[in-house]
């Protein structure tokens, strides 16, 4: 069962609120937009202001995030950056396929996107850094699971409910293991309308020293479903061009 800490969730909701609004907001506007009690809004705004994360640009009660958020996030990212070659390869794959290309890592029962090179086409797979998909019900997640030991996968299976809402997704640990075996034979992981309807994806594990990473190219089934082998070819070519090699996928 997922447990959400309300105070932490409120901070993230507030940051996303400003990211969408892109202008200062008063406490009353924040309270109304996020359906928070006035007292909770006052306490949170006061705390963040006191820590230097919010300020009043006009001095009239409107608050806005300070650059301290960016400084903190940059310091974190710079301490554990994605390899430049991996990012360059993802962008090259996006350019050669025309489809959204993402780099992901494992986070519990999810695959979380760390870098996204978004397609420039109007109808595309929309993703952003921080987007999450079920690790078992996505090609990018199963590519990560292929890097795990069977013991580690068994630990995940005991926590899964396999309720992705799609009949195309694996419905049991045995089905996931079957998908991993088939992917090992094929050379790549694939998906068809599993977690995201009408979305087809092709994924591979990535070489990244101590980290488990995977790469996915995904787009509408109308464009990508019958071209998954071609998408894989583009992936391989880009990895070779950037002196990267595919991780072996264990049986």
UniProtKB/TrEMBL annotation:
Keywords: DNA-binding, Transcription, Transcription regulation. It comes from Paracoccus caeni. It holds the Pfam family IclR_C. This is IclR family transcriptional regulator. GO terms for biological process: negative regulation of DNA-templated transcription. PROSITE patterns: HTH_ICLR, ICLR_ED. It comes from the Bacteria. GO terms for molecular function: DNA binding; DNA-binding transcription factor activity. Residues 68-251 form the IclR-ED domain. The keyword Transcription regulation applies. InterPro entries: GAF-like_dom_sf, HTH_MetabolicPath_Reg, Tscrpt_reg_IclR_C, Tscrpt_reg_IclR_N, WH-like_DNA-bd_sf, WH_DNA-bd_sf.
